[in-house]
Write a structure and sequence with these properties.
alpha/beta; TIM Barrel; 2 domains; three-stranded parallel β-sheet; 11 helices; 39% helix; 13% strand; globular
């Protein structure tokens, strides 16, 4: 059993690098990867701290989950097996505290302006704290306070903050859609950057994006040769979705990856290695990675 998608306190997980390595070892995972959002800091810690180096005795693959855009849609990719130090230096320079703060504030005011322009009701002088809040969450919490906003959104979108967020960042027809490419790198950039540093790129959790046609979108990425593979196995996928992606990878010569997307105690029902209970990814999927 392997797990190539997990998060620590270096991004939005609740377990430290030490804790997640211990849990991976206790589970006897054969292959493991920590894929924090926009940072590979855990691997710097493992390299520099002697007490971390020998905790996990299986195969540890360097990984990171990167926010980017393609065709005006905000997505995530998983990069693996890259040259650690140049990649981490770039990430630390691009995602400084001050730069992140500026991007979040810009996003918040873009969303406020869209609401005003389209007549979507929100509180006057709505406040936002970039240190502790996500812009879409703050806007969502305000929008649901006004019954008249039912004219703009579906019932499901108003009832589910996670669905609202994913739709906002993906669906070009969504009332609050904005192009995130002015705020984060493109997939085209990461294709060149990660490959320059000898890594591989996988499209993360395709079916979590609120797209009209997932395979059509995947075709656009594949036709431009922007990925090496697809995250075929994910906690949120149905068996049917997994079969579709397995077939797609085989048909198009793409590599496969997969993981629980464990965030520690933050999402307790999504467990390391087994996801929601039935995830059991074979080590065999990485056999072709170096061919």
């Amino acid at each position: 059993m392997i797990d190539l998608h997990s998060h620590t306190t270096n991004s939005d997980g609740t377990w430290t690098t030490k804790e997640i390595l211990e849990k991976a070892e206790n589970l006897k995972l054969e292959v493991f990867s920590i894929t924090d959002h926009d940072t590979a800091k855990s691997y710097i810690e493992i390299e520099e701290k002697d007490n971390l180096k020998d905790i996990f005795t299986g195969k540890l693959i360097k990984g990171v989950e990167l926010n980017c855009t393609f065709d005006g849609v905000k997505i995530e990719i998983l990069a693996y097996d890259f040259d650690l130090h140049p990649v981490q230096r770039w990430l630390e320079d691009y995602y400084t505290i001050e730069k992140n703060r500026k991007r979040l504030i810009e996003e918040f005011y873009d969303l406020v302006n869209i609401c005003h322009k389209k007549g979507i009701k929100i509180e006057d002088n709505l406040s936002y704290n970039p240190e502790t809040e996500y812009p879409v969450d703050v806007i969502y919490d305000s929008i649901i306070n006004f019954p008249e906003n039912k004219n703009f959104f579906t019932e499901k979108q108003l009832e589910n903050k996670a669905l609202f967020f994913r739709t906002c960042t993906v669906d070009k027809k969504f009332p609050l859609y904005r192009d995130f490419s002015k705020q984060m790198p493109t997939l085209e950039f990461f294709n060149q950057f990660i490959h320059k540093h000898h890594g591989k790129i996988f499209l993360a959790h395709l079916y979590k994006y609120q797209l009209d046609n997932h395979i059509e979108y995947l075709d656009k990425i594949k036709n431009k040769n922007l990925i090496d593979g697809i995250e075929v196995y994910h906690s949120s996928f149905t068996e049917e979705q997994i079969k579709i992606l397995e077939k797609y990878c085989i048909s198009h010569g793409l590599l496969m990856s997969g993981g629980s997307d464990c965030h520690g105690d933050k999402k307790k029902d999504r467990k390391l290695g087994i996801g929601y209970g039935n995830l059991n990814i074979s080590k065999g999927i990485i056999d072709n990675w170096n061919k």
